[in-house]
Every structure is written in C-alpha cells, then in structure tokens.
TrEMBL record:
GO cellular component: cytoplasm
Gene: aroB
PANTHER family according to UniProt: 3-DEHYDROQUINATE SYNTHASE, 3-DEHYDROQUINATE SYNTHASE, CHLOROPLASTIC
Species this protein is from: Polycladomyces abyssicola
Catalysis performed (reactions): 7-phospho-2-dehydro-3-deoxy-D-arabino-heptonate = 3-dehydroquinate + phosphate
Keyword field contains ATP-binding: no
Protein name per UniProt: 3-dehydroquinate synthase
Length: 360
C-alpha cells in the first residue's frame, strides 16, 4: 500500500507492506537514488542481526556501494557523540552530497540518522526503513534530532525523507511491550481524527496483537495518513500540529517525573490520553469519551490508570513547562468526541487536579 505525503512543493511516498526489502533498489531508483550514489545504512545492535542482511543483499546485488553503521540499541544513542561517530564513518566511507542515508530501525535510529542526513554537508537525502510500530509516527513528519544531557530532543532539524518504506514483516521480532507502546500512538491518531478507525481498532485488536501482516499494514497506513495530513497542513508546527500532542501533556509529565524509567513513551501517553479525556469531560469539551478511551487502550494491554505515587505539584509544574504552554498557562489538547479534538488554553488548575484524582 502506498500513500503520498505532500509538503509544500515536494512530496514523498510512504510504502507499507510485506516483503518490501527485496524491492528496495527499485524504490530508491524511483526517487533517483541510483547505484551511482553511495549509501550509509544506519541501524542499531538489536535490529542489525535480524534485518541488516535483508537490506544490504538486494542493494549490493543491484550494484550499490553500501556500508552499514551500527549504534547500540536504546535511547542513549540519540546523542551528539553517536552523531559525531557517524559523521566520521560517513567521511571515511567517502560520502558526498549525492550520497544518501538509510535509517533502519525504530524512532531512535530514525531521529539520529535523519539528523545525520540533515547536517552532513549541510544536508543529504535520507530514507526511513521503520522497524517499530511507534516509528509509523516518528518516520513521518520530518522531525529529526538528538538528545542533550539536559533535555530530550534539544538539538534537531526539520528534514523530510525521500521515502518511507515500512516492511511490516520486521514487526514479528518486536518485543511485546514495544508493540503495545506503538499501538498507543496508532490509537492516538484514531482518537484525534478518525472515529471509524478507532472502532476498527477495537474490533480487530486480537488479530493486530497477533501481528497479522494485512491488518498491521492497514493500521499503519491509516495511522500514517492521519499524521501526514496534519503535518502537511502545518509542517513547522505553528498550530494545528499541536493536536498530535493529545495525551502528551500529561504523558510527558509522567515520563519526566519518573526519570523515563517507569513507563515507555507509549504507555505514558496511554495514561495521558485517559487523563485528558477525563479532563475534557470536566472542562465540558466532550461527554462520555473517557470510558471508550480506557477500554480501547486496555484491549492493547496498555496502562490506563495512574498507579504511581507522584505528587500533583510536581506534575503540574512539569505540565506548565510543556512546549504548548505560554506564560505559565496550562494548554491541553482535549477531545470533543471520539475522533475529534481541540486545543484548549487556560485550563484551570483545580480541574486538572480533579482529573488527576480520577485517573488514579
Ligand atoms: P527504539 O528505536 O529505541 O526501538 C525500541 C527497541 O526495539 C530498541 O531496543 C530497538 O533496538 C528494538 N527494535 C527495533 N526494531 C526492532 C525489531 N523489528 N525487532 C526487534 N527489536 C527491535 O524506540 P522507538 O519506540 O521506535 O522510538 C522512540 C524514539 O522515537 C524516541 O527517541 C522518540 O523521541 C522518537 N520519536 C520521534 C518522533 C518524531 O517525530 N521524530 C515522534 C515520536 C517519537
Ligand atoms: Zn508520542
């Protein structure tokens, strides 16, 4: 299945399906990345043993000059140190402005390799080969970057890929918890923009959790389509793109308050979406949304209550620091119903406290 993302005066395809790597040379050539151009495949130490060869072999057979660089698996690799090491490898490999970077992995590899491509010789082309469900989100939209010891995603650039090629067969080896976390973002896309998709996710949760390739393809295409539509209308995050942050104001606060150790990002966002659904009901933007939100997320094995003893004061402080917040005012993305949300400024603190109480 192919989906076209249009951004300003250019566009790129998102291809989702089974057994796609065999066709990688053909897809690259459609994007004018030919065997005349060197390729650096960036991947991580968990992905390389499973899929490194599956990507390299067809490229080498098609006559590409290609090298693979492996970073340690995990968030810690989204660092300036790893970036610098990759730049060195790229220089030594003789990469020039016509060369391209292929990011084979989850969001960590995608963000790191995308940023490498954004800054290497002031920008070269790159291709996303996502291998986690969460990466259906991170590979679309052009945000790339690394972390700084003082803050996540503090150093980065907007750089759009030439192509996103999502081979769903790779999801077969993804750890269960990572799969569920990816579904949190798929469900988020449904809840902000597509009620039918939310019902479909409720109906098909068993087959999706069994990793049926046809259904996974469908879920990823629909999730990517929503992300792509929102991004296309607001590439540089001036307004509309904020709706993609549904569940994230509370979710980010939960992650930060627990030092990013208690929950995965998707799990924190799942609790955050329930909290923000409750908040929507309290503020009056929506009626009867939190029950369905909770049920749907729970079907995917995601946490839906706040069962950690965190102080409301700390969470409120973190939420005031949210990127959407201005002048210490609380800003939330709140549901208006299933499949539709709005950005609400100036939400009262006592209402947020009540939502947190009901989330426990
Ligand atoms: P990840 O890339 O660390 O992958 C999760 C784990 O699964 C890793 O240990 C990885 O080695 C392993 N793995 C990956 N694919 C596998 C496979 N097919 N089989 C077996 N193991 C596999 O994490 P993630 O959840 O994909 O991404 C998280 C990152 O994405 C964060 O850094 C976050 O900031 C970023 N992100 C970026 C955007 C964006 O718009 N750029 C959006 C959301 C998240
Ligand atoms: Zn997220």
């Amino acid at each position: 299945r192919t989906l076209e993302v249009a951004l300003g005066d250019r566009s790129y395809p998102i291809v989702v399906g089974s057994g796609l790597y065999a066709d990688l040379p053909r897809w690259l050539q459609l994007r004018h990345i030919t065997p005349a151009h060197s390729l650096l495949v960036v991947t991580d130490s968990s992905v390389a043993p499973h899929y490194g060869k599956r990507v390299l072999t067809p490229l080498e057979s098609a006559g590409y000059r290609v090298q693979m660089s492996v970073v340690p698996a995990g968030e810690a690799s989204k660092s300036l140190d790893q970036l610098s090491r990759l730049v060195e490898e790229a220089i030594r490999f003789g990469m020039d402005r016509d060369s391209a970077v292929l990011a084979l992995g989850g969001g960590v590899v995608g963000d790191l390799a995308g940023f490498l491509a954004a800054v290497y010789m002031r920008g070269i082309r790159f291709v996303q080969l996502p291998t986690t469900l969460l990466a259906h989100d991170s590979s679309v939209g052009g945000k790339t970057g690394v972390n700084h010891p003082l803050g996540k995603n503090m150093i980065g650039a907007f750089h759009q890929p030439e192509l996103v090629l999502f081979d769903v067969d790779t999801l077969a080896t993804l750890p269960e918890r990572e799969l569920a976390s990816g579904f949190a973002e798929v469900i988020k896309h449904a809840l902000i923009a597509d009620a039918d998709f939310a019902m479909w996710l409720e109906q098909h949760h068993e087959a999706l959790l069994r990793r049926d390739p046809t259904l996974l393809t469908e879920a990823i295409v629909r999730g990517c389509a929503i992300k792509a539509q929102v991004v296309a209308r607001d590439e540089r995050e001036s307004g509309l793109r904020a709706i993609l942050n549904y569940g994230h104001t509370i979710g980010h606060a939960l992650e930060a308050a627990t030092g990013y150790r208690r929950w995965t990002h998707g799990e924190a966002v799942a609790i955050g979406m329930v909290g923000e659904a409750i908040l929507g009901e309290l503020v009056g933007t929506a009626r009867d949304v939190s029950g369905f939100t909770r049920r749907l997320l729970a079907l995917y094995g995601l946490p839906v209550t706040l069962d950690e003893p965190l102080s409301d004061e700390e969470l409120l402080t973190l939420m005031r620091r949210d990127k959407k917040a201005r002048q210490g005012e609380y800003v939330f993305v709140l549901p208006k119903g299933i499949g539709t949300v709005e950005v609400k400024k100036g939400v009262e603190e006592r209402v947020i406290r009540e939502a947190l109480r009901r989330l426990k």
